[in-house]
Amino acid sequence: MSGVWVFKNGVVRLVENGGDCPRRKVMVHVASGEAITSYSVLERILFSLGWERYYDDPELLQFHKRSTVHLISLPRDFNKFKSIHMYDIVVKNRNEFEVRDM
Questions:
Q1: CA–CA distance, 70 with 55 (Å, rounded to integer)
Q2: How confident is the model over 7-12, as a mean pLDDT?
Q3: pLDDT given for residue 80 in this prediction
Q4: What is the pLDDT of residues 28-87, one digit of tens each?
Q5: Which of 32, 36, 88, 89 could form a disulfide with 27 if both were Cys (CB 3.0 to 4.6 A apart)?
Q6: Angle value at C-alpha 62, between 58 and 68, nearest 5 degrees
Q7: What is the C-alpha separation between 41 and 47, in angstroms, rounded?
Q8: What is the superkingdom listed in this entry's lineage (predicted)?
Q9: Which residues make Cβ contacts (< 8 Å) with residue 7, sequence separation at least 6?
Q10: Does the pLDDT value for residue 27 go beyond 80?
Q11: What distance in Å separates the CA atoms of residue 30 and residue 35, rounded to the nearest whole number?
Q12: CA dihedral (45, 47, 50, 53) positive or negative
C-alpha cells in the first residue's frame, strides 16, 4: 500500500497512487538554487551553515550543529538518500533547503 496521507475537513485519509510511478524528489539549496546531487555537495553546504561532521558510526554520515541539539543521520550510500532524509534536513535548516518534485 502506497500513497499520500491527506488531511481535509478534520479527517485524515490515505490517497493511493493508483499504480502510478512514485514521483522522485530532489533537495535544492534555496540560496544558490543548487540541487543536492551528492554527499560532497550536501557536506559543503552544511559546513557553510555551521554543521560539523561526526565520525562515530561507520554505517552513517552524521552532522551536528553546536548551537542546537539537532543531529542529522544519513545512510552512507547516497543511492539510499530518500525523501525522509531530505525533509529531516529541511526541518533542521529552515529556509535553507526545499524538497521539490523532479
A1: 16
A2: 78
A3: 93
A4: 999 999 999 999 999 999 999 999 999 988 899 999 999 899 999 999 999 999 999 999
A5: 36
A6: 150
A7: 10
A8: Eukaryota
A9: none
A10: yes
A11: 9
A12: positive
Report field, pTM of the whole predicted structure over 0.85: no
Taking the C-alpha atoms of residue 19 and residue 12, their distance in angstroms, rounded to an integer, is: 21
Candidates 56, 32, 52; CA nearest to 43 is: 52
Ramachandran bin of 73, using left for φ above 0, alpha for ψ from -120 to 50, beta for the remaining angles:
beta
Q: Classify 37 as helix, strand or coil.
A: coil
Contact status, residue 90 vs residue 27, Cβ threshold 8 Å = yes
The C-alpha angle 11, 95, 23, rounded to 5 degrees, equals 55
Size of the chain in residues: 102
Extract the C-alpha cell encoding 94: 529552515
The gap from C-alpha 9 to its chain's centroid, in whole angstroms, comes to 29
**Is the Cβ–Cβ distance between 81 and 75 less than 8 Å?**
yes
What pLDDT was estimated at residue 102? 81
